[in-house]
Amino acid sequence: MSNENLVQARGLSLRYGSKTAVDNIGFSIPKGRVVGLLGHNGAGKTSLMKALVGLMPAQGELQVLGLDPLRQREQLLSGLSYIPDVAVLPRWARVDELIRLMSGLQPNFSADRARALLKRTSVGPRDKVKTLSKGMVTQLHLALVAAIDSRLMILDEPTLGLDVMSRKGFYEMLIDEWCDGERSVLISTHQVEEIETLLSDVMMLDEGRLVLNISLEEIDSRFVALSHDPAAAEAVAAAHPLLRYRQQGQAMALFDGAPPLQVEALGRRMRPSLVDLFMALTRKPEIQPSAQV
Ligand SMILES: Nc1ncnc2c1ncn2[C@@H]1O[C@H](COP(=O)(O)OP(=O)(O)OP(=O)(O)O)[C@@H](O)[C@H]1O
Fold it and tell me: Is ATP-binding included in the keywords of this UniProt record (predicted)?
């Protein structure tokens, strides 16, 4: 593994019996990145994250922090911050008890750091988990895993079920307190619009296949969204855009690469949003969005 890559996967497939959840994918996650893992329900996000933390056997090559997740799981987990999709903290425990528990279990955990992080939240050290709201439990969980001195954080739909303010608070704490240009985070989410500004990179899974793995800067240079007059729709369609849709009442077309000059001249070039790109690359033909042209 190169020093820069915290995760390295090549020819990676994940199966449940005869069901293929992740199909022959390859990617790497260098240091200092905030990577969004996007995909519809059942695309394979949780399965991939489970394999990364050694909870699921994999075919192909997989290294996380230079370790084989399945064979060296114990060693890996001591250097990893992970919140699974069904994150639960013991309801009976008080916050300070959890901090003590983590100190005993996790050699790289700093109780002082966890207490400092919790000062950012409304969670008190004597609070019992069962008295906290869902948003507070999630912040507590983040404070606990962010207090592990690790280089990689893996978050599986961390803000599921939280209101918009709690989601914002969660991501602010993550970015301010954990991302330092050396550590990397892999986050799966369905809230594509919300995390777009946080991400440095995005990976899109569609039925187990990796259909896009790109940095946000590369999206700007590779994909073109063209806003155009409805009268030009036929000429635009003839240039085979990935997706035609409407945005703020305006007819739009999304292209992989610049469209032919005569087509580009029919409209105004705009920055494609992550959601549009996601729709274009992972949309099943039978579930066309109502906003489609
Ligand atoms: N324990 C299991 N046994 C059999 N098949 C499974 C199991 N867990 C997941 N799958 C299948 O593997 C595929 C990928 O599921 P996975 O949970 O990884 O998707 P996901 O992208 O995390 O979905 P969601 O967004 O709904 O959480 C799906 O087809 C799912 O039905």
Answer: yes
Check whether 2 has a pLDDT greater than 60: no
Pocket lining: 41 vs ligand 1, CB cutoff 6 Å:
yes
What is the rounded CA–CA span in Å between residue 98 and residue 111?
10
Beta strand extents in the chain (DSSP E only): 5-16, 19-30, 34-38, 59-64, 80-83, 152-156, 184-188, 201-206, 209-215, 223-228, 243-247, 250-256, 267-270
Instruction: Quote the pTM value.
Output: 0.90
Question: In the structure encoding, which two tokens stand for residue 55, read together?
Answer: 């909870």
The best mutation among 45, 50, 56, 209 to test binding of ligand 1, ranked by most ligand atoms within 8 Å of the C-beta, falls on: 45
Q: Is 115 helix (H, G, I), strand (E, B) or coil?
A: helix
pLDDT given at position 291: 38
Contacts of 177 (CB under 8 A, 6+ apart): 117, 120, 146
CB 156 within 8 A of CB 85: yes
192 CA to middle of ligand 1, Å? 19
